[in-house]
Amino acid sequence: MATPPTHIGYSIEESIEPNILTVRMSPVPSQGGILTLTHCVRSQVTNLTCDGETIIERPEGSWSIPEDVKDLRWKIQLKEGKGVEACEQQSIKLDSSILLSGGSSLPQFKDIYGPEGVRISMPTVRTIYPEPGQSQSIALPGFSKPPLFLLLNFTERTLKDGLITLTYLLDDEKSHSLLPDMGENIKGLKWLMEVADIKTKENFTVGWCEYVGESLGISGATGSGILLANYLLSKTSPIDKALMLYVVLHEAFHQLQTYYPDEPTWIQESLASYYGTRAVEVIMPEEGASLMDRFQKEADRFRKGLLTIHSAVEKGDRSEYAAFYTKGVAFWAEVDKTLRTRSDSLDLYLKDILSRMEYDQQGDPVNLNRILNLSQEAWLSLRAQFLLSKDEKKLF
Ligand SMILES: [Zn+2]
Question: Which domains does the chain possess?
Answer without folding.
Answer: 8-152 (2.60.40.3650), 160-257 (3.30.2010), 270-387 (no CATH)
